[in-house]
Amino acid sequence: MKPGPLIRAALLMAALFLLLHLLGGRQYVGILSGTRDGGLFGLGFGVAYALSWFSAVLLAPIFLLAGLADLSLRRSQRRSGAR
Question: pTM here?
Answer without folding.
Answer: 0.83
